[in-house]
Design a protein that fits this description.
392 residues, alpha+beta, Thrombin, subunit H, 29% helix
Length: 392
Amino acid sequence: MPGAPGKVPGYDSSMGRFRLLVVMALVSSCGGATANTARAPLTTKDILQRSNSAIVWIEAGRDKIGTGFILDKAGIVATNLHVVAGESAITIRLLDGTQYSVNQIAGFDPSRDLALLQITPAKALPTLKLGDSDAVSAGDDVVAIGNPLGVFDHSVSKGLISKVMPWCGRGDITAPHCKSEFTVIQFSAPISPGSSGGPLFNQFGEVVGITTAIITAGQNINLAVPGNYLKPLVAQHATISPDQFAKATGAANEEARGGGKTDEGVHIMRKVPKHPVSVFDGCNVGEIENVIRQIGETIENGAPLYNEGRHEACYRIYEGTAVKFEHDGPCTGVRAAFGDGLLRASGLATPTEKAWALRDTFDGLIDAAGRWADQHPQSAPSGPKPPAPPRK
């Protein structure tokens, strides 16, 4: 989950880059299957069981992860553009562990943060059905499935559509931030970095949104791109090579990685530590989960302040969590990792640099937790199986 300097030191490319959106979204649906037959809503468990095999893990470049879902049995995968922007080496992992390299980009829409990836599977793949996102409205039930924090995959959450918000109307299209008509869906189902690009389902198990995890104000405020925006992309049947795609979207990728200068002219260099999994020696699975959960909550609370230009406040929130675990971490390696992050931050000049230094500390531990979970499948908590090493 990173952000761009001057924009969000809480979410990296894996979690969100809706330009400067301030809220987040989720969607649901309603309607009948035929003129005379009403459709029966599905339970959350039914939606999860029916859709799980069509939801995929995405790893792009060296350190970006996200979620995607299969739209065509021949291998078309939908996700957020920010998950893969600027990358030519993109890997798709299916629920059964099978991995494929993306060989073509089947379309992308920068203004709506969407991308279609093409793989060549050995057999026909399970798919998800797009619903009508224009039919959703506030109060509809929705279900989100994704890979939160890059640690536990196929995690499901349920909520309501809070609001369907026209973000960019026809009269706004000439504005610098507004290049095409754009509506977003705000929803309450919790999502986290790593869930970007995942499907948002209505009560009938149809995809009505593509989730992103940019939390810029409050909790349980999430955004989704309406699923109807995918339909013209699919219909285009236009492909480019991964190398062409990386070149075309490289600027967006540089921003998402946190490279370059902030609005204040401070140069940010990301230095995410690569811990061995032994950093968690002496911790049990519940303690590791608690560390990662609190890191995620800290990011969600600090990132909105950073986006508002309150870099000092963001840093202080990050610092509070780091100090807590340096003193009272559940095992020696965790305490040392936070201590190293605090030491690095103390040698930097500005709150902006300090905030990013602690964000690097968080990312390093999240990455290590993902690899730890992969190596200790029997110790993983009940529920979704921990993912393999990739970590955005």
